[in-house]
């Protein structure tokens, strides 16, 4: 059992919460651990689902004055129940709900009541370095961060099963696409281009699926929370690219989908995987602790590039090499000519930190520790 870095006790004191996240990120385990004595409603239980879908008011009728926190698991299974939730919140300002889901598609696409500002939205990500240890980045590059898989003795088989469950229960069962075969092929080709700019035409040609359908599939990736986009920073004098980059939510799942074997330092796949890991860490930190933080990447049409730009002022380049050279700093130097940068950082496999003029070179574990200690923005 890992101690998570999303502090739900503090958040729920202010408002109710939508807690969304892909399957097996640990939502139910976390909630049952942090709130063991609250009322818990699981919509995956067939009898509970049947009763509340036929008589939503029965939830309100069976609550007692002692109930102060109600958890409803898999709320996207029954969006109509949100009308009852709103009614209860409006009648009792001290009552709180935590509403979990593994897909936001029904909530976003349907006419679901999103409670009109009565609830905050949070995403639960796979395990982060703050939760498993800053030195375990190689484990996470290969196994990912799903709690049930990271320490499994059969991680590869578990990853295979996870992908199959996603296709069967999240996509096919919910009727999100007419052709599960086409979707499965696109999922594979999208994983091969993970951490790159999205090229719908290329993926469509590879998967033999029309580009318009590819766009729809990428929206499904986003709605089912298995993919994230990183927008480009475009406040540039040089001509900048306009297309988002795409990252899967978990390193192990992405590796499995791309059918890549074990990734080791020095291999061709390692640099992209390390960049992917840093992105997921930055994303989780933002979602848990600083939702006002902005994340972008910068790339010009002449191929000058910086992997991440935080708040438009902190530039981060990820290099998998053991020695950072002058050529590794070209993107940072070019961006520094475009805008005022508070910090320039290269995350690398150098054994100790050092400075090259204005650039801070630091080992992976040192960067991750600095991030989760809140020192990225404050130092």
What this model shows, in words?
The protein is of the alpha/beta class and 379 residues long. The chain folds into two domains: 8-123, Rossmann fold (3-Layer(aba) Sandwich), CATH 3.40.50; 129-378, no CATH class. The protein is 43% helix and 17% strand. The strands form three sheets. It has a six-stranded mixed sheet, with helices on both faces. It has a five-stranded parallel sheet with strand order 2-3-4-1-5. It has a three-stranded antiparallel sheet with strand order 6-8-7. Strand 9 and strand 10 (305-310) form a beta hairpin. Helix 10 crosses helix 14 (251-257) and helix 12 crosses helix 13 (211-223). It is globular and about 70 Å long. The mean pLDDT is 93.
Largest sheet geometry: 6 strands, mixed
**First-to-last CA distance:** 32 Å
Sheet/helix structural class: alpha/beta
Total separate domains: 2
User: How many H/I helices?
Assistant: 18
Q: How large is the radius of gyration? A: 22 Å
Tally of DSSP β-strands: 14
Could you give the order of strands across the largest sheet? 9-10-11-12-14-13
Shape designation: globular
Feature tags:
single chain; 379 residues; alpha/beta; Rossmann fold; 2 domains; six-stranded mixed sheet; five-stranded parallel sheet; 14 strands; 17% strand
